[in-house]
Design goal:
The structure holds two protein chains of two kinds. By secondary structure, chain A is of the alpha/beta class. Chain A contains ten helices and 13 strands. In chain A, a hairpin with a 2-residue loop joins strand 8 and strand 9. The longest helix of chain A has 16 residues. Chain B is an all-alpha fold. Chain B has one domain. The chains are: A alpha/beta, B mainly alpha.
Chain lengths: 295, 247
């Protein structure tokens, strides 16, 4: 009998009033995978994560964590989570909060090791109000890990961190993945997804628009943008490598999968290319490529 | 559950404002007003009556303030995201609510007891040993109505409003309920308003125990208020779960 998946989402639909945040989404994550849910703000990542954790009842669809319903899985200590709107209690010290939470698990992560792993050694006597954004996130990570959960679900965990903090955080995540934890995280940074995840699920407008290895996704979305001033757009779409022609007014923006070929062809056809610029595609542009510009 | 209870108690007791407004202030009022105005009423019996009534009022003031202060804080925990965090930890939401109710009830005791001690040993209020126990016990149990009101407000209000409500609600209830100035000196119209407040009946409960009035009516009215507030809290809690994002 195959092992039950770490996370199994079927037909998940989430509606808030009149807007549908998640459309009939299916997603299966197997144990041991490190998966990034990549999407822009408002793509439906948080809604998916929150529904997966049982924070609200979805409009339709089912979620199973480790083969159980979300609440049971959370209560039994099988899932550790970092929420986007999670927080620490006021009027308390970090060590007190950690002790309270760790004491709730049958098999807690040994405190000394947990403190070292999450890098909160100097913070235990600190009042929660005195933590910086990054320190806070590390304490929240320690809480998420306190029960040695086989499955970790993180919603934009590095949003309050500086560059150094981010690097340290993702190093910790890679170590956890190496130890066999299943890690699912939502992010809007392609670089983070690329650096940590062995599978990237791209979510846009509440749907999965791409799902594959980091390299596969990158090759599909790591296109370039060629910008220049030009009033005549005739023939641009037919240039080699070009996948989309956009831009406003005199400024043309070409999305291309082969910047070099596109440039050669452009230079051959035009005497002047004022304000020429070649840049890496932003995630927004990458999504346009993935979704065929239908957004 | 004990772990969460101790954790929550420690948090509330860390707030010096809380201790000041619920224990120190009522105790100081008890001494100050009894010494200032009680001294003017003259003879022994009259002084006793004044000191006893004022002490009961201040026990009620301290008790309701403590009950409200300890429970309205629930709103802060929602705003900070702590309640949401607890939802993804093995801490059932029901336990969080039960612990907050227990914390509210427990923290009423210091306020009520300290004012009673001040009444007895500083203002020389004379009551039989049994009456002292009954008085503290009655005001302790009666505070359940304010614990329920505090839970209702804590669940319903946003952080800023809740912070303001902590001070304003207990002040208004104390003033209108005749805890600071006895209702006897209120104009007639005001006395009607006073009798619509739970605080009037809460102090009435204490007055009943020390023999300054009936007991049955205050018990019934206070139980009614407790029931209404508790139902309100349940209704709001069902509409807006503890882990809902603030705002």
């Amino acid at each position: 009998m195959p092992e039950t998946p770490a996370l199994d989402i079927r037909g998940l639909t989430v509606r808030y009033g009149g807007t549908t945040a998640v459309h009939d989404l299916d997603l299966t994550i197997h144990r041991g995978e490190t998966v990034a849910l990549l999407g822009t703000n408002g793509a439906g990542k948080s809604s998916t994560v929150n529904a997966a954790l049982g924070l609200f009842r979805p409009s339709s669809g089912t979620v199973q964590l480790l083969g159980r319903d979300p609440l049971t899985a959370v209560r039994s200590g099988g899932v550790g989570a970092m929420l986007q709107h999670g927080g620490l209690p006021s009027e308390s010290r970090v060590g007190e909060v950690l002790r309270l939470v760790a004491g709730r698990y049958a098999d807690p992560w040994p405190t000394a090791d947990l403190v070292a792993t999450t890098g909160i050694g100097g913070l235990l006597d600190r009042r929660t109000e005195q933590l910086s954004g990054g320190q806070r996130q590390r304490v929240l990570l320690a809480l998420a890990l306190a029960g040695t959960p086989p499955l970790l679900v993180l919603d934009e965990p590095t949003s309050a961190m500086d560059v150094e903090g981010r690097q340290a955080f993702w190093t910790t995540m890679r170590d956890l993945a190496d130890r066999g934890h299943t890690v699912v995280f939502a992010t809007h940074h392609l670089a983070e997804a690329d650096a940590v995840a062995d599978r990237v699920v791209v979510v846009d407008a509440g749907r999965v628009v791409a799902d594959g290895s980091s390299a596969q996704i990158k090759s599909r979305i790591a296109g370039r943008t060629v910008r220049f001033g030009c009033t005549d757009r005739a023939g641009l779409a037919e240039l080699p490598g070009v996948t989309a022609v956009r831009g406003t007014g005199d400024l043309v923006e070409l999305a291309t999968t082969d910047a070099e070929a596109t440039l050669r062809a452009l230079l051959a056809a035009h005497d002047r290319l004022p304000d020429l610029e070649v840049a890496g595609a932003s995630l927004e542009q990458a999504f346009l490529t993935l979704t065929g510009g239908t957004r | 559950m004990t772990d969460l209870l101790l954790f929550q108690l420690r948090r509330v007791l860390r707030s010096w404002e809380y201790l000041f407004f619920t224990v120190v202030l009522p105790a100081l009022f008890t001494i100050f007003f009894t010494k200032v105005f009680g001294g003017q009423v003259g003879s022994g019996t009259e002084y006793q009556d004044y000191a006893r009534t004022y002490m009961v009022s201040m026990m009620a003031y301290g008790g309701l303030g403590a009950a409200l202060g300890a429970t309205i804080r629930l709103s802060f925990d929602r705003a900070s995201g702590w309640l949401r965090q607890l939802r993804v930890l093995p801490v059932p939401g029901r336990e969080v609510v039960v612990v907050d109710i227990v914390v509210g009830m427990l923290l009423v005791l210091p306020s009520v007891v300290v004012v009673a001690l001040v009444g007895r040993f500083v203002n020389d209020v004379r009551l039989g040993p049994g009456t002292w126990v009954e008085l503290v016990g009655a005001l302790w149990l009666g505070s359940a109505a304010f614990v329920a009101l505090g839970m209702l407000l804590g669940l319903a209000l946003e952080q800023k409003a809740a912070g303001a409500a902590m001070g304003i609600v207990s002040t208004v209830l104390a003033a209108l309920g005749g805890l600071w100035i006895p209702v006897e000196v209120f104009p007639a119209g005001f006395r009607v308003v006073s009798e619509l407040t739970p605080s009037y009946w809460y102090a009435g409960l204490g007055r009943g125990v020390v023999g300054d009035g009936g007991l049955v009516l205050p018990v019934l009215v206070l139980a009614g208020f407790a029931l209404v507030f508790a139902c309100g809290a349940l209704a709001v809690g069902a509409r807006r779960p503890l882990h809902a994002v603030a705002g």
